[in-house]
Amino acid sequence: MEGHNSKIGRLGEDLAGRFLEKNGYQIIDRNFQTRYGEIDLIARQADEILFCEVKTRLSLQYGYPEQAVDGKKINHLLQAAKIYLKIKNFNCFWRLDIISVELVGNREPKIEWFKDVSSQY
After folding, report:
1. What is the rounded radius of gyration, in angstroms, for the C-alpha atoms of the chain?
2. Average pLDDT of span 15-44
3. Which one of 54, 67, 74, 117 is most buried, counting C-beta atoms within 10 A?
4. Euclidean distance between the first and final Cα of the chain, in Å?
5. Across-strand partners of 27?
6. Domain residues of the chain, as ranges?
């Protein structure tokens, strides 16, 4: 049985996936598991692979969704991305992004896209 937080996370991932598709990306994988953790969404556009961490919040009481991704998480995601590339034998450009999804109150979902976050660490 899926818990409340899992349902919210899944909803955020679904919204983020549709957002990426509207921006020309094709979702090629979801919830890829490694010993370093999970990559929420993996998308492709032409010869570029996008590894995406999705963070969703119902309230901003504990900060913006993207603030939940720290340097340690980024490093784990980078290791997971390298494993994915090796397993799939992809030799292409790739990057790590964060998609922040706010589902606060009765407002429309707010989606923000933070591109190439690994370059900040």
Report:
1. 14
2. 98
3. 54
4. 37
5. 43
6. 4-120
